Amino acid sequence: MAIVIEPISPVAFSVLGLDIRWYALAYIAGFIIGYFVFKYLAARRDSGIRISKKQMDDLLTYVILGVILGGRLGYVLFYNLAFFLAHPIEIFAVWHGGMSFHGGLIGVIVATFLAARKMKINPWRMLDLMAVVGPIGLFFGRIANFINMEVMGRPTTRPWGVLFAGTGDVIPRHPSPLYEAATEGLLLFLIMFCLYRFTGLRHRPGALAGILGMLYAVFRIFCEQFRAPDAQIGFLTSWGLTMGQLLSSAMFVAGAIIFAISLKRKQVSTDCSK
Q: Measured between alpha carbons, how far is residue 133 from residues 1, 35, 36, 121, 217 in Å?
Protein backbone atom coordinates (compact mmCIF):
# COMPACT_ATOMS: atom_id res chain seq x y z
CA MET A 1 0.00 0.00 0.00
CA ALA A 2 1.09 3.54 -0.68
CA ILE A 3 -0.38 7.02 -0.58
CA VAL A 4 -1.03 8.00 -4.19
CA ILE A 5 -0.62 11.71 -4.84
CA GLU A 6 -1.70 13.42 -8.01
CA PRO A 7 1.08 15.58 -9.48
CA ILE A 8 0.89 19.22 -8.42
CA SER A 9 1.83 21.86 -10.96
CA PRO A 10 5.02 23.72 -9.97
CA VAL A 11 3.17 26.90 -10.97
CA ALA A 12 0.93 28.12 -8.14
CA PHE A 13 -0.82 30.78 -10.23
CA SER A 14 -0.18 33.29 -12.98
CA VAL A 15 -0.43 37.08 -12.93
CA LEU A 16 -0.54 38.94 -16.24
CA GLY A 17 1.08 35.99 -17.96
CA LEU A 18 3.83 35.68 -15.33
CA ASP A 19 4.00 32.24 -13.71
CA ILE A 20 4.38 32.32 -9.92
CA ARG A 21 5.94 29.06 -8.78
CA TRP A 22 5.52 27.31 -5.45
CA TYR A 23 9.28 27.47 -4.95
CA ALA A 24 9.20 31.26 -5.24
CA LEU A 25 6.29 31.46 -2.80
CA ALA A 26 8.21 29.28 -0.34
CA TYR A 27 11.17 31.67 -0.43
CA ILE A 28 8.89 34.69 -0.07
CA ALA A 29 7.05 33.14 2.90
CA GLY A 30 10.32 32.21 4.57
CA PHE A 31 11.79 35.68 4.14
CA ILE A 32 8.65 37.51 5.29
CA ILE A 33 7.95 35.38 8.37
CA GLY A 34 11.65 35.23 9.23
CA TYR A 35 11.84 39.03 8.94
CA PHE A 36 9.07 39.57 11.48
CA VAL A 37 10.34 36.93 13.92
CA PHE A 38 13.83 38.46 13.72
CA LYS A 39 12.34 41.92 14.21
CA TYR A 40 10.39 40.71 17.27
CA LEU A 41 13.47 39.14 18.86
CA ALA A 42 15.76 42.08 18.00
CA ALA A 43 13.28 44.56 19.52
CA ARG A 44 13.43 42.82 22.89
CA ARG A 45 15.52 44.55 25.54
CA ASP A 46 17.60 41.40 26.04
CA SER A 47 18.51 40.95 22.35
CA GLY A 48 21.87 42.64 22.75
CA ILE A 49 21.51 44.62 19.53
CA ARG A 50 19.87 47.85 18.46
CA ILE A 51 18.66 47.83 14.88
CA SER A 52 16.48 50.38 13.09
CA LYS A 53 13.77 49.64 10.55
CA LYS A 54 16.03 50.83 7.73
CA GLN A 55 18.80 48.56 8.97
CA MET A 56 16.32 45.68 9.13
CA ASP A 57 15.33 46.31 5.52
CA ASP A 58 19.00 46.50 4.50
CA LEU A 59 19.73 43.26 6.36
CA LEU A 60 16.87 41.52 4.56
CA THR A 61 18.38 42.56 1.24
CA TYR A 62 21.78 41.22 2.27
CA VAL A 63 20.26 37.92 3.41
CA ILE A 64 18.19 37.46 0.25
CA LEU A 65 21.30 37.95 -1.87
CA GLY A 66 23.28 35.62 0.39
CA VAL A 67 20.69 32.86 0.19
CA ILE A 68 20.22 33.04 -3.58
CA LEU A 69 23.86 33.54 -4.60
CA GLY A 70 25.27 31.18 -2.00
CA GLY A 71 22.60 28.55 -2.55
CA ARG A 72 23.06 28.55 -6.30
CA LEU A 73 26.86 28.61 -6.29
CA GLY A 74 26.86 25.89 -3.63
CA TYR A 75 24.74 23.67 -5.86
CA VAL A 76 27.01 24.36 -8.83
CA LEU A 77 30.20 23.57 -6.91
CA PHE A 78 29.02 20.74 -4.66
CA TYR A 79 26.47 18.87 -6.76
CA ASN A 80 26.88 19.34 -10.52
CA LEU A 81 30.13 21.12 -11.36
CA ALA A 82 30.87 19.11 -14.53
CA PHE A 83 27.48 19.96 -16.04
CA PHE A 84 27.76 23.68 -15.32
CA LEU A 85 31.32 23.85 -16.64
CA ALA A 86 29.96 22.45 -19.90
CA HIS A 87 26.85 24.69 -19.82
CA PRO A 88 27.85 27.84 -17.89
CA ILE A 89 24.77 29.80 -18.98
CA GLU A 90 22.65 27.33 -16.99
CA ILE A 91 24.15 28.68 -13.78
CA PHE A 92 21.74 31.60 -14.10
CA ALA A 93 18.68 29.42 -14.86
CA VAL A 94 17.59 29.18 -11.23
CA TRP A 95 14.00 28.51 -12.32
CA HIS A 96 15.15 25.04 -13.38
CA GLY A 97 15.88 24.26 -9.74
CA GLY A 98 19.14 23.50 -8.00
CA MET A 99 19.90 25.20 -4.68
CA SER A 100 22.20 23.99 -1.92
CA PHE A 101 21.41 24.62 1.74
CA HIS A 102 25.07 24.47 2.71
CA GLY A 103 25.94 27.01 0.03
CA GLY A 104 23.05 29.21 1.12
CA LEU A 105 24.28 29.01 4.72
CA ILE A 106 27.75 30.21 3.71
CA GLY A 107 26.10 33.01 1.74
CA VAL A 108 24.03 34.09 4.74
CA ILE A 109 27.07 34.06 7.04
CA VAL A 110 29.05 36.24 4.63
CA ALA A 111 26.06 38.55 4.10
CA THR A 112 25.46 38.86 7.85
CA PHE A 113 29.07 39.75 8.58
CA LEU A 114 29.06 42.36 5.82
CA ALA A 115 25.78 43.87 7.07
CA ALA A 116 26.90 43.80 10.70
CA ARG A 117 30.16 45.53 9.82
CA LYS A 118 28.28 48.26 7.97
CA MET A 119 25.82 48.68 10.86
CA LYS A 120 28.51 48.42 13.56
CA ILE A 121 26.70 45.52 15.23
CA ASN A 122 28.34 42.44 16.74
CA PRO A 123 28.05 39.90 13.87
CA TRP A 124 27.86 36.92 16.23
CA ARG A 125 24.83 38.38 17.99
CA MET A 126 23.21 38.90 14.62
CA LEU A 127 24.07 35.34 13.55
CA ASP A 128 22.54 34.00 16.76
CA LEU A 129 19.25 35.66 15.82
CA MET A 130 19.62 34.31 12.29
CA ALA A 131 20.05 30.86 13.80
CA VAL A 132 16.60 31.15 15.37
CA VAL A 133 14.75 32.27 12.24
CA GLY A 134 16.69 30.24 9.65
CA PRO A 135 14.68 27.02 10.12
CA ILE A 136 11.53 28.89 9.09
CA GLY A 137 12.87 29.18 5.55
CA LEU A 138 14.00 25.56 5.62
CA PHE A 139 10.47 24.45 6.49
CA PHE A 140 8.86 26.22 3.55
CA GLY A 141 11.65 25.20 1.19
CA ARG A 142 11.18 21.51 1.95
CA ILE A 143 7.42 21.78 1.50
CA ALA A 144 8.10 23.26 -1.94
CA ASN A 145 10.50 20.39 -2.66
CA PHE A 146 7.66 17.96 -1.97
CA ILE A 147 5.19 19.84 -4.16
CA ASN A 148 7.73 19.91 -6.99
CA MET A 149 8.51 16.20 -6.51
CA GLU A 150 12.16 17.05 -5.86
CA VAL A 151 14.73 15.28 -3.67
CA MET A 152 12.36 12.38 -3.20
CA GLY A 153 13.01 9.48 -0.90
CA ARG A 154 14.33 5.98 -1.21
CA PRO A 155 11.96 3.05 -1.84
CA THR A 156 9.93 1.93 1.16
CA THR A 157 7.27 -0.58 2.14
CA ARG A 158 5.97 1.62 4.94
CA PRO A 159 2.26 2.49 4.71
CA TRP A 160 3.08 6.19 4.48
CA GLY A 161 5.20 5.73 1.38
CA VAL A 162 4.10 8.03 -1.44
CA LEU A 163 3.58 7.37 -5.11
CA PHE A 164 3.18 10.32 -7.47
CA ALA A 165 0.66 9.40 -10.15
CA GLY A 166 1.61 10.02 -13.76
CA THR A 167 5.38 10.13 -13.19
CA GLY A 168 6.07 6.60 -14.34
CA ASP A 169 7.51 5.69 -10.95
CA VAL A 170 5.73 2.60 -9.61
CA ILE A 171 7.82 2.31 -6.43
CA PRO A 172 6.48 3.86 -3.21
CA ARG A 173 9.05 6.18 -1.68
CA HIS A 174 9.73 7.90 1.61
CA PRO A 175 8.31 11.46 1.58
CA SER A 176 11.77 12.66 2.63
CA PRO A 177 11.11 16.38 2.03
CA LEU A 178 8.36 16.16 4.65
CA TYR A 179 10.74 14.46 7.09
CA GLU A 180 13.16 17.33 6.56
CA ALA A 181 10.42 19.97 6.87
CA ALA A 182 9.44 18.46 10.23
CA THR A 183 12.97 18.07 11.63
CA GLU A 184 15.23 20.66 9.95
CA GLY A 185 12.35 23.11 9.82
CA LEU A 186 9.66 22.95 12.50
CA LEU A 187 11.48 21.01 15.24
CA LEU A 188 14.73 22.91 14.79
CA PHE A 189 12.91 26.25 14.95
CA LEU A 190 11.16 25.29 18.20
CA ILE A 191 14.44 24.14 19.76
CA MET A 192 16.34 27.26 18.71
CA PHE A 193 13.53 29.60 19.80
CA CYS A 194 13.36 27.97 23.25
CA LEU A 195 17.15 28.03 23.65
CA TYR A 196 17.16 31.72 22.82
CA ARG A 197 14.24 32.70 25.03
CA PHE A 198 14.68 30.43 28.04
CA THR A 199 18.43 29.88 28.49
CA GLY A 200 21.43 32.11 29.02
CA LEU A 201 23.04 31.10 25.72
CA ARG A 202 22.09 34.43 24.12
CA HIS A 203 24.60 36.01 26.52
CA ARG A 204 27.40 34.17 24.71
CA PRO A 205 27.62 35.50 21.14
CA GLY A 206 28.02 32.69 18.62
CA ALA A 207 26.69 29.93 20.89
CA LEU A 208 23.32 29.62 19.19
CA ALA A 209 24.88 29.81 15.73
CA GLY A 210 27.14 26.90 16.69
CA ILE A 211 24.23 24.89 18.07
CA LEU A 212 22.25 25.44 14.88
CA GLY A 213 25.16 24.08 12.86
CA MET A 214 25.39 20.95 14.99
CA LEU A 215 21.65 20.26 15.24
CA TYR A 216 20.99 20.85 11.55
CA ALA A 217 23.85 18.50 10.70
CA VAL A 218 22.41 15.76 12.93
CA PHE A 219 18.91 16.10 11.46
CA ARG A 220 20.20 16.25 7.88
CA ILE A 221 22.47 13.22 8.29
CA PHE A 222 19.53 11.30 9.75
CA CYS A 223 17.09 12.33 7.00
CA GLU A 224 19.61 11.51 4.27
CA GLN A 225 19.09 7.84 5.17
CA PHE A 226 15.60 8.12 3.68
CA ARG A 227 16.46 10.46 0.80
CA ALA A 228 17.56 9.22 -2.62
CA PRO A 229 21.04 10.49 -3.50
CA ASP A 230 21.36 13.01 -6.30
CA ALA A 231 21.30 11.11 -9.60
CA GLN A 232 24.36 12.88 -11.02
CA ILE A 233 26.45 12.01 -7.94
CA GLY A 234 25.02 8.89 -6.36
CA PHE A 235 26.67 7.53 -3.24
CA LEU A 236 30.19 8.76 -2.50
CA THR A 237 31.31 5.52 -0.85
CA SER A 238 30.48 1.83 -1.00
CA TRP A 239 28.80 2.10 2.40
CA GLY A 240 26.30 4.75 1.27
CA LEU A 241 27.73 8.15 2.22
CA THR A 242 25.92 10.99 0.42
CA MET A 243 27.13 14.47 -0.45
CA GLY A 244 24.57 15.91 1.98
CA GLN A 245 26.00 13.80 4.80
CA LEU A 246 29.57 14.74 3.94
CA LEU A 247 28.80 18.47 3.90
CA SER A 248 26.73 18.15 7.09
CA SER A 249 29.58 16.35 8.86
CA ALA A 250 31.85 19.30 8.08
CA MET A 251 29.08 21.62 9.24
CA PHE A 252 28.82 19.76 12.56
CA VAL A 253 32.55 20.15 13.20
CA ALA A 254 32.41 23.87 12.34
CA GLY A 255 29.38 24.34 14.61
CA ALA A 256 31.09 22.53 17.48
CA ILE A 257 34.19 24.74 17.14
CA ILE A 258 32.07 27.93 17.08
CA PHE A 259 30.11 26.75 20.12
CA ALA A 260 33.26 25.84 22.06
CA ILE A 261 34.81 29.23 21.32
CA SER A 262 31.63 31.01 22.41
CA LEU A 263 31.74 29.26 25.80
CA LYS A 264 35.29 30.52 26.36
CA ARG A 265 34.23 34.10 25.74
CA LYS A 266 33.31 36.20 28.73
CA GLN A 267 29.56 36.18 29.30
CA VAL A 268 28.15 39.57 28.28
CA SER A 269 24.97 41.45 29.06
CA THR A 270 22.26 41.56 26.41
CA ASP A 271 20.27 44.34 28.08
CA CYS A 272 20.04 47.13 25.49
CA SER A 273 18.40 49.47 27.99
CA LYS A 274 21.71 50.10 29.72
A: 38, 8, 9, 18, 17
